[in-house]
């Protein structure tokens, strides 16, 4: 089922800056979609358009078939958003903040408390539930922001650098929660980050963006095929270590057989898969060459 769609989505600000340039996206239910690019690439603008905070200059977008520009309240009812500057109340405790936002979405007091305690525990904030938010560290606030975004059990979750400022253990807990939401509840995740290695670990599909324009979108294999033909095999035999280019992995057995049949010994064979980072920069270079 298509959850999020964008067709020629464009945003030009009054200053004349084109923040998004004819973006096309299609995201299926349960995907963890990484929207990736450097700061200023247009990621935050896209999230604002998809949540009805901004209206597009051209093109269209929808969330579960809802036009966010026309009825943003309907999108807000089924989406959760985590940004670096999520608004909560410093004079309320962590638990009270979550219960308040639960009530805003129409969740009863008892159910709000049950969900709040569940997320506080999963995000290792249970011991701080009665502390006022003003006493929370930056990392604790970040985790509470995620719990706040989840309190009404959204169908789609928008995350902007969700592990920023977190220690490794807290980041691991956040990542495990994100994966479980996708796997167990079918929650669709739209994750914005400039950390390509992090995205490669957690996302199932990717959209690579630069200066407001989409470079490519798809799975890692699909992105790889856009810029790299075939694959590189790392092979260590009696002649030493070497990289050999092949069209596909089906060629590897015959390659090994030829070496063995000629009297050689093969000690190691592995396929070298290009990282998301390598693919991104190769796409950038390809785009520059095309533009010249």
What does this structure look like?
The chain is of the alpha/beta class and 292 residues long. The chain folds into two domains: 2-223, 3-Layer(aba) Sandwich (Rossmann fold), CATH 3.40.50.300; 228-291, no CATH class. 38% of the residues lie in helices and 28% in strands. The chain is built from ten helices and twelve strands. The chain has helices at 43-50, 72-78, 94-104, 109-122, 138-150, 168-185, 196-202, 220-227, 252-261, 276-291, and strands at 2-12, 18-28, 32-36, 58-63, 79-82, 156-160, 188-193, 205-210, 213-218, 231-237, 240-246, 266-272. The strands form three sheets. The chain has a six-stranded mixed beta sheet with strand order 5-6-7-3-8-9, sandwiched between helices. Strand 10 (231-237) and strand 11 (240-246) form a beta hairpin. Helix 3 (94-104) packs across helix 4. It is globular.
